[in-house]
Each structure stands twice: as structure tokens, then as C-alpha cells.
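#data-curation
PF: Archiving a pair of folding outputs for the training set. Convention for this channel: one message per protein, sequence first, C-alpha cells after, nothing in between. First:
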Amino acid sequence: MKHATALCLIALAVSSILHPPLLVAAPPASPPAPLPPGFGDPIPDWQARWELAKVLSYTKAYDESI
């Protein structure tokens, strides 16, 4: 039985030498892209309603766009 255990350990050692585990480093994290100018700035209420009315008219929801 000791002979079989020794053979298994030798086989494991040889296989780990011949096929080492792949150690792949993760690529460095890139910094987030900067936001475009004006992104996140508040817009006037009338402009938001106007854009919503345009989108609703594209979908032919004319009554809702008024």
C-alpha cells in the first residue's frame, strides 16, 4: 500500500511540474471616463417638458404630449 501512495505522490508532483497552474494577473483597473461637460447639471422644467412632448409625439401619443 505504501508503494501505491508513493507512486500517487510522485505522479502528482510530476504533473504539477509539467503543468503548473496558470497565474494570470488581472489587468490594472483603468480610471473611470470623465463625464462630459454639463452632465448632471439641472435643466429647466420647461425644457424637460418640451423634450418629453417630443418623445411622446414620436410615439404618436399626441394627447399625452400636450
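PF: Second:
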Amino acid sequence: MSKSKHPLRDLLLVFTVWLASLFFAGSLFEVYFLNLGMSLHEIYLADVLWFLAAVLLIPFFKGFKTKPFILFGIAITIVSVLALLLIKDNSAAYIFRFFLGATHFFFWVPFNTAVYEFRKENNATLSSILTSFTPLLSLVLPAVSGIIAQDFGYDVIYVASIVCCIIAIIIGIFLIEDREYKYDFRTSMKSISGLKSLLFLDGFSISTIGSVTLPIMILDFLDKPQDVGFFLSLVTVFAIVSSFFVSYASDKSQSRRKYLLVSALGFSIAAIFSSQVSDIVLFFIGFGLVNFFSKLFSPLSAALAVDNSKKLADTIAAREFMLNAGRFSGGIIGVIIFLLFDLQATLLFQGAFFLIYIPIFELKRRKLLHI
């Protein structure tokens, strides 16, 4: 077991290096396979596979150890990226997304459990720190990846991704504390009673729109890696600062309700707006607003689950299961709407559907604490 005096800092260091590998490998996923000749429908379906593995894995485990699971999750990332590096046809998209989806369990569940062990009364601020790593790296790495891919080829960024993973594994071997956690799936699901439908909706709309639908819609406007990379980097700036302020205010008041509901409503309106525009400037504004409200919402949603947790491992495992069940369901329905209509109709449905989060939240209030 690591005897580090700064276990949280060490976890975040491993996380940051691993997250950089995901940006190198994944931020240009859609445009890479578009240029390889894959249709948008096929790309959408491949993206949806990202959420399947965790749904299959979580019910069949009874616990986990922090260090070996996190390191295995990083190793799975290497295997996923090798598919992109070695297989130059459309099958690589499905292999990459499915195997990478296993990290939702092997990396995210033990990582989040270990990190939230350090919580006091600042769950939303801690959640905001975690979720802000993504937009912080988004300021730089998508643009850098786009430049490298356009000038030197995609293989260079895939090699960079693997190198980041190797560095993360080396750091993790020496620095991550090895703690063991037990959970029971049925007990875990009971531990989030009152939150299951809310977490499902979070995954169904928030995650699916941000991770699948909007990144594919970018391809209606841009088809060069450098342009896509710069676009993704530019839309993240304001969301970072705002997420910290709202999360801090939520922790101070210990009331999540008003912040959650405002960000949920704002997200839905922004998604609906984005589905109705055909100009790249208006789409940029819409994408930025969706990103802004999702970054406000996500740490508060995570904190709400942790606030009410009696056994952290149960809560984190059940939360990850419900999020991914929602993501996969939202993705499958999104594929069907996309096939029958178009991508704009898919985004319109997903954004409008999330409006039911507000009345369901109000109905569930009596089962929840700290709201």
C-alpha cells in the first residue's frame, strides 16, 4: 500500500495523465471515422457501445481494489487505442468504444470511490474539481490533437495516448493507495432509492447529448481534424469558472435543489435551441450553452448521490450503473430517431425529454436529503 502523505493529489495526478490519453485518442474519433468513410449513423452506433460494458460488468462483481482496478482500467485504454492504431477499417470504431466503455467500471468506480473518501461537506466542490479536469484539458488538447493529426497523421496522437497511459500506470504503481471495497449489486441499487430515475435521466440526456449527439453534429459543419479540435477547445472556456462558483455556493447552502433545477432547465433549452439552428455561429453558441449548463449540472448531480450515501462503494457502483443504463438507452433511442428522421430530431427529442427531470425531482424530494 502506498504511504503517500497526499493520496488525493496522487489520485488526481494519475487521473489527469490518463484523461490526457483519452483526449488524444477520442476527441477526434468522429471526424477520423468520417474521413475513413464511415456513415454518421454507423459512428453514432459505435459511440453508443461506449456505455454497454459497464452495464454488463457492474452487476457481476462484488467489490474491487483501488490500485489493481484503476491500473487495469488504464491498461484497457491501451488495448482500445491499439485498435485505432493497428486496424484501419470501420471495425476499429466498435472495438475502441466497447473496450473503452469497460473503464466506466474498472477506472471510474474505484477512482470516484477513493476520491470521495476525502469528502467533508464539500461534495459539489469536489465533484466540480473532478468534472473540471475535462474542460481544462479541453482548452488545449483537442486543438493540439487536431493540428498534429492534420500535419502528421492520426497515428501520432494515438501513440501519444498510449504513452500517456504508460506514464499513468507507472505513476499509479508507486503512488495509488490500495484499498479494498465491497459492494452488493442489489444493496447498491437500494442505496440510491429515490435517485435511480434521476440518474437514468442524467445519463439518457446530459451524457448522451454531450458525448455522442453534439460531437457528431459538428460534422455537419466541419470535416477537418484541426477545425474540429479548435471548435471543441473554444466551447469550454466559460463552463470551467461557472462550475466552481455554483458548486461552491451549493456546498455553502447545502441545498442542491435550485442549482440543479436551473441548470437542468437551461440544459434542455440550450439543447432544443441547438437542434433548430443551421448556421455554424449559432450552433457554436448552442453547443457552448449546452456545455455550460452540463458542467453546472454534473457535479451537483454527483454530489446529490454522495450526500445521501451510507456506504460509498454501494452508492458509486449503483450510480455508475444507472448513468450508463441511461446513456445506453438514450443512445439506442437516438440511433432509431436518427435513422427514421435526422440528427436534429434526435437532439430535439433528447433535449425536450430532459425537461421531465424537473417534475420527477420534485416528486422525489421527500426521499432525498440535503435538497
